Fold:
Amino acid sequence: MAVKAGELHKVETGSWPFDLAATLNSGQVFHWHAMGDGFAGVIGRKAVWVRQVEPGLLECTGGMAETVREYLGLGEDMAAMAATFPADDAALQRAVAWCPGLRILRQPSWECLATFITSSLKQVPHIRAISLRLRERFGELVREEGLPDQWAYPEPSVLAAAGEAALRECGLGYRAAFLVRTAETVASGAMDLGAVATMDDEKALEALTTLHGVGDKIASCALLFGFGRTAAFPVDVWIERVMRELYFPRARKLTHERLKTFARRRFGRHCGVAQQFLFHWARLTDCGRSEIGN
DNA sequence: TTCCAGGTAACGC
DNA sequence: GCGTTACCTGGA
Structure:
Protein backbone atom coordinates (compact mmCIF):
# COMPACT_ATOMS: atom_id res chain seq x y z
CA MET A 1 0.00 0.00 0.00
CA ALA A 2 1.32 3.40 -0.96
CA VAL A 3 1.84 6.08 1.63
CA LYS A 4 1.73 9.56 0.19
CA ALA A 5 5.20 11.02 0.44
CA GLY A 6 3.90 14.57 0.75
CA GLU A 7 2.15 13.76 3.99
CA LEU A 8 5.18 12.31 5.68
CA HIS A 9 6.74 14.13 8.59
CA LYS A 10 10.35 13.95 9.64
CA VAL A 11 11.57 12.84 13.04
CA GLU A 12 15.21 13.39 13.93
CA THR A 13 16.57 10.69 16.20
CA GLY A 14 19.61 12.55 17.53
CA SER A 15 23.28 11.74 17.66
CA TRP A 16 23.06 8.36 19.42
CA PRO A 17 22.22 5.55 16.96
CA PHE A 18 18.64 4.52 16.46
CA ASP A 19 17.39 1.26 14.93
CA LEU A 20 13.65 1.25 14.30
CA ALA A 21 13.36 -2.38 13.24
CA ALA A 22 15.37 -3.68 16.19
CA THR A 23 13.40 -1.56 18.63
CA LEU A 24 10.01 -2.72 17.35
CA ASN A 25 11.17 -6.34 17.20
CA SER A 26 12.87 -6.62 20.57
CA GLY A 27 10.04 -8.17 22.51
CA GLN A 28 8.71 -4.93 23.96
CA VAL A 29 5.67 -4.66 21.74
CA PHE A 30 3.76 -7.17 19.64
CA HIS A 31 1.46 -5.51 17.15
CA TRP A 32 3.65 -3.68 14.64
CA HIS A 33 3.96 -5.16 11.18
CA ALA A 34 6.24 -4.53 8.25
CA MET A 35 4.65 -2.50 5.47
CA GLY A 36 6.67 -1.35 2.50
CA ASP A 37 10.04 -0.27 3.80
CA GLY A 38 8.61 0.72 7.15
CA PHE A 39 6.20 -0.40 9.86
CA ALA A 40 2.51 0.14 10.43
CA GLY A 41 1.05 0.16 13.90
CA VAL A 42 -1.18 1.95 16.34
CA ILE A 43 -0.11 4.35 19.06
CA GLY A 44 -2.96 4.82 21.47
CA ARG A 45 -5.90 5.50 19.18
CA LYS A 46 -3.99 6.64 16.13
CA ALA A 47 -2.76 4.52 13.25
CA VAL A 48 0.70 5.39 12.04
CA TRP A 49 3.28 4.29 9.54
CA VAL A 50 6.92 4.96 10.19
CA ARG A 51 10.11 4.19 8.38
CA GLN A 52 13.78 4.80 8.90
CA VAL A 53 15.09 6.93 6.06
CA GLU A 54 18.68 7.01 7.24
CA PRO A 55 20.52 6.39 10.50
CA GLY A 56 19.42 9.61 12.19
CA LEU A 57 16.11 10.21 10.46
CA LEU A 58 12.62 8.75 10.49
CA GLU A 59 9.53 9.60 8.50
CA CYS A 60 6.03 9.06 9.77
CA THR A 61 2.49 9.72 8.61
CA GLY A 62 0.78 13.03 9.20
CA GLY A 63 0.61 14.77 12.52
CA MET A 64 2.27 11.98 14.41
CA ALA A 65 5.85 13.20 14.69
CA GLU A 66 5.70 14.16 18.35
CA THR A 67 3.72 11.06 19.32
CA VAL A 68 6.15 8.81 17.48
CA ARG A 69 9.08 10.55 19.09
CA GLU A 70 7.68 10.04 22.56
CA TYR A 71 6.59 6.44 21.89
CA LEU A 72 9.98 5.41 20.53
CA GLY A 73 11.76 6.81 23.55
CA LEU A 74 13.59 9.39 21.49
CA GLY A 75 13.10 11.99 24.19
CA GLU A 76 15.41 10.02 26.47
CA ASP A 77 19.11 10.75 26.45
CA MET A 78 20.46 7.31 25.60
CA ALA A 79 24.05 8.50 25.52
CA ALA A 80 23.72 9.73 29.09
CA MET A 81 22.12 6.48 30.21
CA ALA A 82 24.74 4.35 28.48
CA ALA A 83 27.39 6.46 30.16
CA THR A 84 26.12 5.22 33.53
CA PHE A 85 26.83 1.62 32.59
CA PRO A 86 30.04 0.16 34.01
CA ALA A 87 32.81 0.76 31.47
CA ASP A 88 34.69 -2.32 32.63
CA ASP A 89 31.79 -4.72 32.04
CA ALA A 90 32.91 -6.22 28.73
CA ALA A 91 29.76 -8.30 28.31
CA LEU A 92 27.36 -5.40 28.71
CA GLN A 93 29.50 -3.11 26.56
CA ARG A 94 29.54 -5.76 23.86
CA ALA A 95 25.76 -6.10 24.02
CA VAL A 96 25.35 -2.34 23.68
CA ALA A 97 27.84 -2.20 20.80
CA TRP A 98 26.08 -5.12 19.13
CA CYS A 99 22.87 -3.12 18.71
CA PRO A 100 23.33 0.43 20.01
CA GLY A 101 20.19 1.62 18.22
CA LEU A 102 17.90 -0.31 20.53
CA ARG A 103 15.60 1.92 22.59
CA ILE A 104 13.11 1.44 25.37
CA LEU A 105 9.60 2.17 24.15
CA ARG A 106 7.19 4.33 26.06
CA GLN A 107 3.91 2.53 25.48
CA PRO A 108 0.50 3.40 26.90
CA SER A 109 0.53 1.68 30.28
CA TRP A 110 -2.70 -0.31 30.02
CA GLU A 111 -1.99 -1.97 26.68
CA CYS A 112 1.55 -2.70 27.76
CA LEU A 113 0.48 -4.30 31.04
CA ALA A 114 -2.37 -6.23 29.44
CA THR A 115 -0.24 -7.53 26.60
CA PHE A 116 2.38 -8.86 28.99
CA ILE A 117 -0.32 -10.60 31.02
CA THR A 118 -1.09 -12.57 27.87
CA SER A 119 2.58 -13.35 27.26
CA SER A 120 3.25 -15.92 29.96
CA LEU A 121 4.71 -19.16 28.63
CA LYS A 122 4.14 -17.99 25.10
CA GLN A 123 6.49 -17.47 22.23
CA VAL A 124 6.59 -14.17 20.39
CA PRO A 125 4.47 -15.27 17.38
CA HIS A 126 1.77 -16.49 19.78
CA ILE A 127 1.80 -13.24 21.72
CA ARG A 128 1.47 -11.34 18.47
CA ALA A 129 -1.44 -13.48 17.34
CA ILE A 130 -3.27 -13.05 20.63
CA SER A 131 -2.63 -9.33 20.70
CA LEU A 132 -3.95 -8.85 17.17
CA ARG A 133 -7.02 -10.99 17.78
CA LEU A 134 -7.91 -9.01 20.91
CA ARG A 135 -7.51 -5.74 19.05
CA GLU A 136 -9.53 -6.90 16.09
CA ARG A 137 -12.36 -8.32 18.11
CA PHE A 138 -12.63 -5.84 20.98
CA GLY A 139 -10.64 -2.77 20.01
CA GLU A 140 -11.74 0.41 18.36
CA LEU A 141 -11.16 0.54 14.63
CA VAL A 142 -8.68 3.24 13.68
CA ARG A 143 -8.46 4.32 10.08
CA GLU A 144 -5.86 6.41 8.38
CA GLU A 145 -5.80 7.16 4.69
CA GLY A 146 -3.29 4.97 2.88
CA LEU A 147 -3.00 2.53 5.78
CA PRO A 148 -4.75 -0.80 6.30
CA ASP A 149 -7.46 -1.04 8.95
CA GLN A 150 -5.99 -1.34 12.42
CA TRP A 151 -7.42 -1.48 15.90
CA ALA A 152 -6.59 0.22 19.16
CA TYR A 153 -5.93 -2.00 22.17
CA PRO A 154 -9.29 -2.64 23.90
CA GLU A 155 -10.10 -0.60 26.97
CA PRO A 156 -10.21 -2.36 30.37
CA SER A 157 -14.00 -1.98 30.59
CA VAL A 158 -14.45 -3.70 27.23
CA LEU A 159 -12.31 -6.68 28.16
CA ALA A 160 -13.98 -6.90 31.55
CA ALA A 161 -17.39 -6.99 29.89
CA ALA A 162 -16.23 -9.49 27.26
CA GLY A 163 -15.67 -12.15 29.89
CA GLU A 164 -13.37 -15.12 30.14
CA ALA A 165 -15.05 -17.33 27.56
CA ALA A 166 -14.76 -14.75 24.80
CA LEU A 167 -11.11 -14.21 25.61
CA ARG A 168 -10.44 -17.91 25.52
CA GLU A 169 -11.81 -17.88 21.99
CA CYS A 170 -8.96 -15.54 21.17
CA GLY A 171 -6.46 -18.22 22.21
CA LEU A 172 -5.58 -16.87 25.64
CA GLY A 173 -6.04 -20.15 27.46
CA TYR A 174 -5.65 -19.85 31.23
CA ARG A 175 -4.47 -16.24 30.75
CA ALA A 176 -8.06 -15.26 29.92
CA ALA A 177 -9.11 -15.32 33.56
CA PHE A 178 -6.05 -13.25 34.53
CA LEU A 179 -6.78 -10.60 31.92
CA VAL A 180 -10.49 -10.37 32.73
CA ARG A 181 -9.86 -10.00 36.44
CA THR A 182 -7.19 -7.38 35.96
CA ALA A 183 -9.35 -5.54 33.41
CA GLU A 184 -12.16 -5.49 35.99
CA THR A 185 -9.86 -4.17 38.67
CA VAL A 186 -8.62 -1.38 36.42
CA ALA A 187 -12.04 -0.58 34.93
CA SER A 188 -13.63 -0.31 38.37
CA GLY A 189 -11.01 2.14 39.52
CA ALA A 190 -9.80 -0.19 42.26
CA MET A 191 -6.44 0.02 40.49
CA ASP A 192 -5.56 3.43 39.09
CA LEU A 193 -2.72 3.17 36.59
CA GLY A 194 -2.44 6.95 36.59
CA ALA A 195 -1.74 6.81 40.30
CA VAL A 196 0.80 4.03 39.80
CA ALA A 197 2.64 6.39 37.46
CA THR A 198 3.17 8.79 40.36
CA MET A 199 4.50 6.18 42.79
CA ASP A 200 8.16 5.45 43.35
CA ASP A 201 9.49 2.33 41.65
CA GLU A 202 9.13 0.06 44.63
CA LYS A 203 5.56 1.09 45.45
CA ALA A 204 4.58 0.88 41.79
CA LEU A 205 5.89 -2.67 41.54
CA GLU A 206 4.11 -3.60 44.74
CA ALA A 207 0.84 -2.13 43.46
CA LEU A 208 0.99 -3.81 40.07
CA THR A 209 1.77 -7.23 41.52
CA THR A 210 -1.47 -7.15 43.50
CA LEU A 211 -3.23 -7.58 40.14
CA HIS A 212 -4.27 -11.07 39.19
CA GLY A 213 -1.87 -12.60 36.69
CA VAL A 214 0.76 -9.96 37.34
CA GLY A 215 3.87 -11.25 39.05
CA ASP A 216 7.26 -9.64 39.35
CA LYS A 217 8.28 -10.22 35.75
CA ILE A 218 5.17 -8.81 34.09
CA ALA A 219 4.96 -5.88 36.48
CA SER A 220 8.58 -5.07 35.70
CA CYS A 221 7.95 -5.25 31.95
CA ALA A 222 5.01 -2.88 32.33
CA LEU A 223 7.07 -0.48 34.41
CA LEU A 224 9.97 -0.53 31.98
CA PHE A 225 8.09 -0.39 28.66
CA GLY A 226 4.89 1.34 29.75
CA PHE A 227 5.83 3.67 32.60
CA GLY A 228 9.30 4.75 31.57
CA ARG A 229 10.94 3.24 34.65
CA THR A 230 14.46 2.51 33.50
CA ALA A 231 15.34 0.95 36.84
CA ALA A 232 12.73 -1.82 36.46
CA PHE A 233 14.48 -5.12 35.79
CA PRO A 234 12.33 -7.96 34.42
CA VAL A 235 13.90 -11.37 34.87
CA ASP A 236 12.71 -13.83 32.26
CA VAL A 237 14.25 -17.06 31.09
CA TRP A 238 16.55 -15.27 28.62
CA ILE A 239 17.91 -12.79 31.12
CA GLU A 240 18.31 -15.52 33.69
CA ARG A 241 20.21 -17.59 31.19
CA VAL A 242 22.51 -14.85 29.93
CA MET A 243 23.27 -13.54 33.41
CA ARG A 244 23.95 -17.01 34.69
CA GLU A 245 26.45 -17.58 31.92
CA LEU A 246 28.09 -14.18 32.18
CA TYR A 247 28.13 -13.51 35.89
CA PHE A 248 27.28 -16.68 37.83
CA PRO A 249 28.71 -19.59 35.82
CA ARG A 250 29.18 -21.74 38.91
CA ALA A 251 26.09 -20.81 40.90
CA ARG A 252 23.73 -23.69 41.51
CA LYS A 253 20.76 -21.79 42.84
CA LEU A 254 20.03 -18.32 41.54
CA THR A 255 16.88 -16.53 42.62
CA HIS A 256 15.34 -13.75 40.60
CA GLU A 257 15.67 -11.50 43.61
CA ARG A 258 19.39 -12.11 43.71
CA LEU A 259 19.69 -11.31 39.99
CA LYS A 260 17.76 -8.08 40.44
CA THR A 261 19.88 -6.98 43.36
CA PHE A 262 23.03 -7.81 41.44
CA ALA A 263 21.80 -5.97 38.35
CA ARG A 264 20.91 -2.85 40.28
CA ARG A 265 24.33 -2.74 41.89
CA ARG A 266 26.34 -3.59 38.82
CA PHE A 267 24.42 -1.84 36.02
CA GLY A 268 23.17 1.15 38.01
CA ARG A 269 20.00 3.22 38.00
CA HIS A 270 19.15 2.44 34.38
CA CYS A 271 19.61 -1.30 34.81
CA GLY A 272 16.38 -1.93 32.92
CA VAL A 273 17.94 -0.41 29.83
CA ALA A 274 21.02 -2.57 30.31
CA GLN A 275 18.66 -5.52 30.62
CA GLN A 276 17.17 -4.75 27.21
CA PHE A 277 20.58 -4.68 25.52
CA LEU A 278 21.59 -7.95 27.18
CA PHE A 279 18.23 -9.55 26.41
CA HIS A 280 18.33 -8.57 22.75
CA TRP A 281 21.90 -9.71 22.33
CA ALA A 282 21.29 -12.99 24.15
CA ARG A 283 18.16 -13.80 22.19
CA LEU A 284 19.54 -13.04 18.75
CA THR A 285 23.02 -14.52 19.22
CA ASP A 286 22.03 -17.37 21.53
CA CYS A 287 24.16 -15.82 24.26
CA GLY A 288 26.98 -15.16 21.82
CA ARG A 289 27.19 -18.65 20.40
CA SER A 290 26.02 -17.51 16.99
CA GLU A 291 27.66 -14.11 17.07
CA ILE A 292 29.68 -13.49 13.95
CA GLY A 293 33.38 -13.69 14.66
CA ASN A 294 32.83 -15.35 17.99
C1' DT B 1 3.00 -38.45 19.97
C1' DT B 2 5.31 -35.82 23.34
C1' DC B 3 7.51 -31.90 24.85
C1' DC B 4 7.96 -27.28 26.05
C1' DA B 5 7.88 -22.22 25.72
C1' DG B 6 9.77 -14.67 27.37
C1' DG B 7 5.02 -16.84 34.23
C1' DT B 8 1.68 -16.96 37.90
C1' DA B 9 -1.15 -18.69 41.57
C1' DA B 10 -2.05 -22.18 44.61
C1' DC B 11 -0.59 -25.69 47.23
C1' DG B 12 2.52 -28.56 50.22
C1' DC B 13 6.13 -28.79 53.45
C1' DG C 1 9.57 -18.71 53.28
C1' DC C 2 10.90 -22.07 49.66
C1' DG C 3 10.12 -25.65 46.33
C1' DT C 4 6.56 -27.98 43.18
C1' DT C 5 2.78 -28.20 40.16
C1' DA C 6 -1.19 -27.18 37.13
C1' DC C 7 -2.52 -24.31 33.65
C1' DC C 8 -4.28 -23.24 27.65
C1' DT C 9 -2.30 -23.16 23.27
C1' DG C 10 0.43 -24.01 19.26
C1' DG C 11 4.62 -25.26 17.02
C1' DA C 12 8.66 -28.34 16.79
Q: What stands out?
A: The mean pLDDT of chain A is 95. Chain A has 14 helices and seven strands.
